[in-house]
Amino acid sequence: MHACMRAPTAAETSIIPVVAGETTLLRIINAAMNAELFVSLAGHKMTVVAADAMYTKPFETTVVLVGPGQTTDVLVTANARTKHFSVLTPAARAASRAPPRGDLRRPSP
User: Fold this and answer.
1) By the 8 A CB rule, do 53 and 71 touch?
2) Which fold would CATH assign to domain 20-94?
3) So what's the pLDDT on residue 102?
4) What is the pLDDT of residues 47-91, one digit of tens each?
5) Which residues of 1-109 form beta strands (DSSP E)?
6) Rounded CA gap, 78 and 8, in Å?
7) Which stretches does UniProt call biased (Low complexity) (predicted)?
8) Is the pTM of this model over 0.90?
């Protein structure tokens, strides 16, 4: 996913394949210099397991804040209720008109 000054097209949307019931490790990286990144996954909770390559006591959350130049590792278990769900990244600052966008999707049988 990447931030840009316009809404991303379908071709620019990152697709991450997942399997219902399986747990996936996502490393969230904020490559920005001066902007915080808020990340949530529609309809799912995340378990934070590391921050900046340092293991942390796992905790469950619905939103992760990643500071500039930082990383956060989260575990996500895809539920079977939906075939795909959006990675939501609301802009932390008014100057960011179009937040990055992505989807986690289960493959069709």
Assistant:
1) yes
2) Immunoglobulin-like (2.60.40)
3) 57
4) 999 999 899 999 999 999 999 999 999 999 987 676 666 777 765
5) 14-17, 23-29, 37-41, 46-51, 54-61, 64-66, 71-77, 84-88, 102-105
6) 24
7) 90-99
8) no
